[in-house]
Amino acid sequence: MLQTTIAGSLPKPSWLAEPEKLWAEWRTTGDELENAKRDAALVWLKEEEDAGIDIVGNGEQFRVHFVHGFLEQVAGIDWAKKTKMGIRDNRYVVDVPTVTGPVARRGSIHGEEVRFTRAHTERKLKFTLPGPMTICDTIADAHYGKRADMAMAFAELLNQEARELEALGVDVIQFDEPAFNVFMDDVKDWGIAALHKAREGLTCTTAVHICYGYGIEANIEWKKTLGSEWRQYEEIFPALNKSRIDQVSLECANSKVPLSLIGLLKDKQVMVGAIDVASQEIETPEQVAATIRAAAEFVDPARMLPCTNCGMAPLPKPVAEGKIRSLAAGAALARKDFGG
Ligand code: ZN
Where are the alpha helices (DSSP H) in 204-316? Predict the structure, then answer.
């Protein structure tokens, strides 16, 4: 009951990349870089285990960006051909690479890092991949013509990768879909279908992480436009509840998402975000337990996994360490209440 986990990313140590900066470049190159990534992953596995996190991950220490880490190893993308694109429905405009031909994996993308991570922990292991819709909202299309078609092509590649990672011993494969609360009609039209293609044939647990993003400026401005209650999930949760994805994550700490919306996920395991990643204040275990208790009004604790609201990459490392300790300690307090 109340198995704890983290959404995905954790801060990079200062020897690997500039701290407190989202998508910071690597400090070094070549073999030295590969060794530095491995060292960073080991540090985080140890921190998670010592904190008492049940389902651990490598904190995404092997990638700069949660989408590009996957795309960098995909053929059919022209990285020099930049296209200006308003991503997340024009929340921010960025120069993105362009798909110019059929996409294909050049080979294993995350196999090596998973082999390494799996060899260094006995705990259940989670691995995160970008979701097909979010990939398509992060890259321009000069080949497929329809976004849904491009999403299906990427879903096929994600499926190939996911099958390989499952065979290497990953217990939970999580697809990150922050685009899901922006394009609600597309989620129902083809977003969930693309996730199903990405998870086809997997026997491990599958999860989808939807969220309102890191605490960066563009997101903070966007959130101001969403009103006092964020009800975007209300439109997509009924469809997600019917989906073949096992776990759904949502933010519950300092969030304007009404907790009652969790009630729409009655057939799913729910990752309840009990750690605010947009604040540097470290929650107390009592605060974490209070969030879990509040969520328990709408989801049976047997189906609940206390988690962070989102990734913690941009936070100072000691803050993230404190937050995962409080997450585990708070879950332990709540577990006592529920007799687990
Ligand atoms: Zn997130």
Answer: 217-224, 232-241, 285-295
Whether residue 122 lies inside any domain: the answer is yes
Pairing of strands 92-105, 74-86: antiparallel
Write out the residue range of the structural domain in which residue 202 sits.
30-337
- Give the CATH number for residue 202: 3.20.20.210
Q: What are phi and psi of 308, to 5 degrees?
A: -90, 155
- How close is the Cα of 273 to the center of ligand 1, in Å? 10
Question: Considering the domain boundaries, does residue 6 fall inside one?
Answer: no
Please give the distance, rounded to the nearest whole angstrom, from the Cα atom of residue 213 to the centre of ligand 1: 5
Residues of the chain with pLDDT > 90: what percent?
86
Q: How confident is the model at residue 145 (pLDDT cuts 50, 70, 90)?
A: very high
Determine the pLDDT at residue 295.
Answer: 96
Identify the three-state secondary structure at position 121: coil
Total tally of structural domains belonging to the chain: 1
Task: Assign 323 a pLDDT band (cuts: 50, 70, 90).
Answer: very high
Which pLDDT score is estimated for 216?
73
14 within domain boundaries: no
Q: Give the Å distance between the CA of 248 and the centre of ligand 1.
A: 12
Minimal CA–CA distance to 5: which of 54, 66, 69, 72? 54
- E strands, 231-303, are 247-251, 269-275
Task: Give the Å distance between the CA of 275 and the centre of ligand 1.
Answer: 12
List the structure tokens of 214.
């890191």
What is the pLDDT, as a whole number, of residue 215? Answer: 67
Residue 31 CA, ligand 1 centroid: distance in Å: 30
**Given this model, what pLDDT does residue 105 score?**
97
Examine residue 11 and state whether it is found in any structural domain, yes or no: no
Bridge partners (DSSP) listed for residue 161: none
Residues with CB under 5 A from ligand 1 (ion): 211, 310
What's the rounded mean pLDDT across residues 96-123? 97
Residue 8 has pLDDT above 90, yes or no: yes
Cα of 161 from ligand 1 centre, angstroms: 21
